[in-house]
Design a protein that fits this description.
14% strand; globular; 159 residues; alpha+beta; CBS-domain
Length: 159
């Protein structure tokens, strides 16, 4: 099964100069936990990701409202991503390595095409439960979740 079959298309984005308030509005209205950050609307090139946790921690640690914090100041860069024509298992492997639940789906120019989440893959595993040859299994989902939740080496990240 290919990523493009399960990914969410028409994803809302922010630019680095937008505020976290704008990102939080998208998360609330679209019922999602991440917002891809694109260089500009014309290119759609992914330059970062902001999560709901990023927004909360930024507001807490800075003691400022979301409307005063720029997305570009708190977004994660060096974003793990996948391609639309990749096998879903490859996307899961990327999630495991990067310790993330969601991946932007990009083209060769790093332009955003959509987002695939572990929840998207889990829903497919549920649909395929009992199939003779399921393309996605509950065991794979469990293994991916376990790998994502594996504690990171914080000391190495801070070095």
């Amino acid at each position: 099964m290919k990523v493009e079959q399960l990914m969410t298309k028409g994803v809302s984005t922010c630019a680095p100069d937008d505020t976290l308030n704008q990102a939080a509005r998208i998360m609330w209205e679209r019922d999602c936990g991440i917002v891809p950050i694109v260089e500009n609307a014309a290119t759609g090139r992914v330059v970062g990701i902001v999560t709901d946790r990023d927004a909360c921690m930024a507001a807490y640690t800075r003691g400022q409202p979301l409307s005063q914090i720029r997305v570009g100041d708190v977004m994660s860069t060096g974003v793990a991503s996948c391609r639309a024509l990749e096998d879903v298992r490859e996307a899961e492997q990327t999630m495991r390595r990067a310790h993330v639940h969601r991946l932007p789906v990009v083209d060769e120019a790093n332009q955003l095409l959509g987002v695939i989440s572990l929840a998207d893959i889990a829903r497919e595993a549920t649909r395929e439960a009992g199939a003779r040859r399921p393309e996605v299994t509950a065991v794979e989902i469990g293994e991916t979740l376990a790998a994502i939740r594996e504690p990171r080496d914080v000391a190495a990240m801070c070095a």
